Amino acid sequence: MKRPTSLTLRLTFLFSAVAAVVLLTFGWVIERSLAEHFAREDGKEIKIIAQTVKRTLSTLQADHDLTHIKQRFTDMLVGHHDALLLITDAAGQRLYSSPGPDLSLIPQPSGGLQQGVLQQWSDGKHNYRVFIQQVTGRGDDLYTLVIAVAIDFHLHFLTGFRHTLWLMIVCGILVISVMGWFVVRHGHRPLHNIIDRISHISANELNTRLTPETLPAELTELALSFNELLQRLEQAFSQLTNFSADIAHELRTPVTNLMTQTQVALSQTRNAEEYQEILYSNIEEYERMAQMIGDMLFLAKADNVRHTPNTEAVDLKSEIANLFDYYGAWAEECHVSLTLDGNAQVQGDSLMLRRALSNLLSNAIRHTPASYSVEVKLSDDGNDVIIVVQNPGTPISAEHLGKIFDRFYRTDPSRQRSGEGAGLGLAIVKSIVEAHGGTIVATSDETSTQFRIILPGPADRSS
Ligand SMILES: Nc1ncnc2c1ncn2[C@@H]1O[C@H](COP(=O)(O)OP(=O)(O)OP(=O)(O)O)[C@@H](O)[C@H]1O
Ligand SMILES: [Mg+2]
After folding, report:
1. What's the DSSP call for residue 99?
2. Residue 300 or residue 186, greater confidence
3. pTM of the model
4. Of 151, 171, 191, which closes a domain?
5. I need a labelling partner for 390 at 20 to 30 A (CA). Which of 23, 225, 370, 457 fits?
6. Ligand nearest 365 Cα, by number?
7. Span 171-189, average pLDDT
8. What domain range includes position 98?
C-alpha cells in the first residue's frame, strides 16, 4: 500500500496553493485595473480631440483654402502627445491627414461608425488606440474622423509592471511556502514531544501516563485514548505476571507434598502394602495437578481463540439433563436436589458450553446446604438466550463478587491448598462465555447466589 504523503508536506503544499491563488488573483486584479485606467485616460484624450475637430469642422467656411484648413488641424494636435488625425469627406476625399502612418489602413469597426468605437491598432512599429466616428460638419456635410493616440508608452509601462508583479508573486509564493514549512513543523512540535515520550515507555513503566491538559485541544483525544490503552495494557500485563506467580505457587504445594511423602517412604524399608498405600495417596495429588494443568492449558487456548471455531446448534436443555445425570450421585450424597426449568438453543461449541455449565453446577452443588436445591433456568427472549444457575447458601460478599472470575481466586482463603479447587473454574466459565460473544454476571444475597449467562441467540450469531 502506498504510504500517505507526510503531514508537513501536505500542509505546506495546501498553504502554498492558497497563497498562490490569493496572490495571483490579486496580481490579476491590479493589472486589469491599471490597463483599464490607461484605456480610460486614452479614451478621454481622444474624446477631447474629437470634440475640438467637430467644432472646427462646423465653423469651416467654404472659401477656406486647403492650406489654411490643414494648418488649423495641425495646430490643434500640437497639445496632444503623439496624436494622429485623418478626416475624409463623404466622397472619401482626404480633408486632412496628419504626418506619419496611414490611418486609412485601419479596418472599419464592426459596431458601426455612428456611435464611435475605441479599438487598438498597430502599424507594425507602434501601437495606437483608435477612435473612428462619423460627424456632420457645416451644412449637412458628412465627415469620417479617425483619431489615433500612441500607447507604446503605456504598454511598455504595463509590461514592465507585469514583470515586476509576477516576479514579486513568485517570490511571495516561495517565501510563504518556506515559512509555511517552518510554521507547520513548529506546530507539530507537541506531536513530536508525545512521540518522544511514548518511545521511552518500556514494559516496566506501563504506569506512565501522558498529560492531556498540557497538550493542544486536537491532541487531547489522542492522549486520552493512549492513556486508556496503557491502562488496559498495564492491567493485562500485571494479570499475566500474577498468573505466572500463581501457577508457580499452586504447583509448589502438591510437588512439596509428593516430595515429602516420597522422602518419608524412603526413610525406611516398607512392605508392599505400605508402598501401595503411598502410591494411591500420590495419585490424588497427581490428579489434582493434572486437572489444574489441564485447566490452565484450556484457559491459555481460550485466550488465543477469540471466537469459537465450532459452531453447532446446542440444545441446552438436554446438555443440562446430561449434567444432572452425571452429578446426580454426588448431589444425592450431599442431599441437594437439582431442578431444571425452561428450554433454549444456542449456536456454539457444545464441548466448551458443557464445560462451563459443569463448572457452574459443581460450584453450586458444593455450596448448597443439605436439603436445598440447585435451580437452572433457561429462557430465550428472541434476541438473547439466558441461562441462570442459582443456589441458596452463604452469600458471596461484595468484596469477593468482583473477583471470583479472576484466575486462582477463591473466596475462602482457609480452603486454599487444602485441596477443593484451584480457583480456575469461574475463570474458565467466563472465557468460554466471552468466546461465544456473551456475558456473565454473578449476584449474591441472603436467599441465593445466582450466575446469569447471556448468550446471543441463534439468529444473532448466524447474521
Ligand atoms: N455457587 C456458589 N456459591 C457460593 N460461592 C461460590 C459459588 N460459586 C463459586 N463460588 C466461590 O467463588 C470462588 C471461585 O470459584 P471457582 O469455581 O473459580 O473456583 P473453585 O471452585 O474454588 O476451584 P475450581 O473450580 O478451579 O475447582 C470459589 O472459591 C467459591 O468460594
Ligand atoms: Mg469451581
Report:
1. S
2. 186
3. 0.58
4. 171
5. 457
6. 1
7. 91
8. 7-171
